């Protein structure tokens, strides 16, 4: 089986991993958006007591917060260092109910189909060669009636200007080369991947950044960064 991953992408995250939990590091945007996405997930599917898999978990910002909300969380990724950092953080912070594993989402789907109440896959699809395959695997992992939450970057001129030129070159919020425009996904494309995987689209939200207040908010503007919530039919 060929692995659906880009070694350069995995190496990039590995090199930055030691600063994953520094809220002023390159991962500042993930720290800033985390409370917003966590609240949205909780609103649609309260996490306490749920079995969750977090796909492309990196250093575990979302995984850790979902475990703290009472879920039993498995974080998976294919970059070794971020996973080590995630484990170390859980130990240091005393987070219970979270574990991490280096495994491809497609392999986990073959191993544990229909096992999770909630599947999350955030800010990861724009880094993989075949995002549709990841969505299919997420759909296989979730139980009938369960929820799949996805987020990624939209592909249009505004997203190019804000997510790449603005964030990487003007504001230095992200290292140059963090994102590759061609891998961004329009909401219509992601919705099609979900439907093709047998998931029903339930809701979507946009994430916007205000450079003046330096704050993110969740709303209806999906032009740049957006989240989608789907359900597997019961
Ligand atoms: N989901 C986390 C981290 C996002 S950073 C969050 O939102 O907080 C993107 C992560 O995707 C990195 O940790 C990177 O290693 C991971 N990734 C990239 N390609 C991957 C692949 N093919 N399989 C699993 N994880 C991958």
UniProtKB/TrEMBL annotation:
Residues given in the record as S-adenosyl-L-methionine binding sites: 37, 56, 77, 122
Pathway: Cofactor biosynthesis; ubiquinone biosynthesis
EC number, UniProt record: 2.1.1.222, 2.1.1.64
GO MF, one example: 3-demethylubiquinol 3-O-methyltransferase activity
Membrane spanning residue stretches: none
SUPFAM superfamilies per UniProt: S-adenosyl-L-methionine-dependent methyltransferases
Gene Ontology process terms (BP): methylation
Catalyzed reaction equations: a 3-demethylubiquinol + S-adenosyl-L-methionine = a ubiquinol + S-adenosyl-L-homocysteine + H(+); a 3-(all-trans-polyprenyl)benzene-1,2-diol + S-adenosyl-L-methionine = a 2-methoxy-6-(all-trans-polyprenyl)phenol + S-adenosyl-L-homocysteine + H(+)
Superkingdom in the source lineage: Bacteria
Keyword annotations: Methyltransferase, S-adenosyl-L-methionine, Transferase, Ubiquinone biosynthesis
Top EC group: transferase
HAMAP family xref list: UbiG
Similarity comment text for this entry: Belongs to the methyltransferase superfamily. UbiG/COQ3 family.
Task performed by this protein: O-methyltransferase that catalyzes the 2 O-methylation steps in the ubiquinone biosynthetic pathway.
Name the record gives this protein: Ubiquinone biosynthesis O-methyltransferase
Organism encoding this protein: Roseateles puraquae
């Amino acid at each position: 089986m060929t692995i659906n991953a880009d070694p350069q992408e995995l190496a990039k995250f590995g090199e930055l991993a030691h600063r994953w939990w520094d809220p002023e590091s390159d991962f500042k945007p993930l720290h800033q958006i985390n409370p917003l996405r966590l609240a949205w997930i909780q609103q649609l599917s309260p996490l306490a007591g749920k079995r969750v898999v977090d796909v492309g978990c990196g250093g575990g910002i979302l995984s850790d917060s979902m475990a703290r909300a009472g879920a039993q969380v498995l974080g998976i990724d294919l970059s070794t260092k971020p996973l080590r950092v995630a484990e170390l953080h859980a130990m240091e912070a005393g987070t219970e109910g979270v574990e991490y594993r280096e495994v491809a989402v497609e392999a986990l789907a073959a191993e544990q189909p229909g096992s999770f109440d909630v599947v999350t896959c955030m800010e990861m699809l724009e880094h993989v060669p075949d995002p549709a395959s990841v969505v299919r695997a997420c759909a296989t992992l979730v139980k009938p009636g369960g929820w799949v939450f996805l987020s990624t970057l939209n592909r249009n001129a505004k997203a190019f200007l804000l997510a790449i030129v603005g964030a990487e070159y003007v504001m230095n919020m992200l290292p140059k080369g963090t994102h590759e425009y061609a891998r961004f996904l329009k909401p219509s494309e992601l919705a099609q991947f979900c439907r093709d995987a047998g998931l029903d689209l339930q809701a979507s939200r946009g994430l916007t950044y205000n450079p003046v207040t330096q704050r993110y908010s969740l709303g209806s503007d999906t032009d740049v960064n957006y989240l989608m919530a789907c359900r597997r039919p019961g």
